[in-house]
Design a protein that fits this description.
mainly alpha, Smoothelin-like protein 1 isoform X5, 7 helices, about 0% strand, single chain
Length: about 180
C-alpha cells in the first residue's frame, strides 16, 4: 500500500526515496556512515567497534534507536503518548502531534486533541509540520486511516525528514563531526 501523498505535487514512492536520500545526506547526529573511497578506508570501515558500530559512524540499527529515543524524550511530558516503536505508538496520531507541538506550541492546543479522532490528529500534525517546519507531506492521512497501525518504515522516514527540517531551522542542535 502506498503511504505517500499523491496529489498536486505528484509525490510518489520516488519522493519518499528522495526525502530519504536528503535526510541521510544531512549532517545530523543521526546521520548514516560516510562512504569510503580507498581500499584502506574500506577495510577500516568494516572493522566493528565494541558498541556494534562500524568505524566512521553509527550503523542503521543505532540510528533508528537514537531517533526513537529522541522522539521518546521529546514527547515524554505529553499525555497519551508512549513511544515504544515506529508503528503502533504512532497509530492514533497523538505522538505526531506531541512531537510537532514540542517544537511549535503555537501551532495548536495539544490539550484539545482527541485520541479517538485519528484523522484530525494526523491532519493537524502534518499540516502544522508543513506550515511551520517546512516538512514535506510525505504521509497521506487517508492511507494511514486504512491501517490499524502505520508502516514503521513510513513513520521512520517521516520522522527523519521532520528532524532534518528542525536541524535546518536551528531548532535541534547536532554534534559537530570531528575532522
Amino acid at each position: 500500500m502506498e503511504n505517500l501523498r499523491q496529489g498536486t505535487g505528484g509525490k510518489t514512492s520516488a519522493s519518499l526515496r528522495t526525502a530519504q536520500a536528503k535526510t541521510l545526506s544531512q549532517p545530523t547526529s543521526v546521520s548514516s556512515p560516510k562512504t569510503v573511497s580507498s581500499p584502506a578506508q574500506s577495510h577500516v570501515a568494516r572493522v566493528k567497534m565494541s558498541g556494534g558500530s562500524a568505524v566512521g559512524g553509527p550503523n542503521t540499527k543505532d540510528v533508528k534507536q537514537m531517533l526513537l529515543d529522541w522522539c521518546r524524550v521529546k514527547t515524554e511530558p505529553y499525555e497519551g503518548v508512549n513511544i515504544q516503536n515506529f508503528s503502533s505508538s504512532w497509530a492514533d496520531g497523538l505522538a505526531f502531534c506531541a512531537l510537532v507541538h514540542r517544537f511549535f506550541p503555537e501551532g495548536f492546543e495539544y490539550c484539545t486533541l482527541n485520541p479517538y479522532d485519528r484523522k484530525s490528529n494526523f491532519e493537524k500534525a502534518f499540516k502544522t509540520a508543513e506550515r511551520l517546519a517546512d516538512c514535506p507531506p510525505l504521509l497521506d492521512v487517508d492511507d494511514l486511516m486504512r491501517m490499524r497501525e502505520p508502516d514503521w518504515k513510513c513513520v521512520y522516514t517521516y520522522i527523519q525528514e521532520f528532524y532534518r527540517c528542525l536541524v535546518e531551522k536551528g531548532l535541534v542542535k547536532t554534534k559537530k563531526k570531528m575532522p
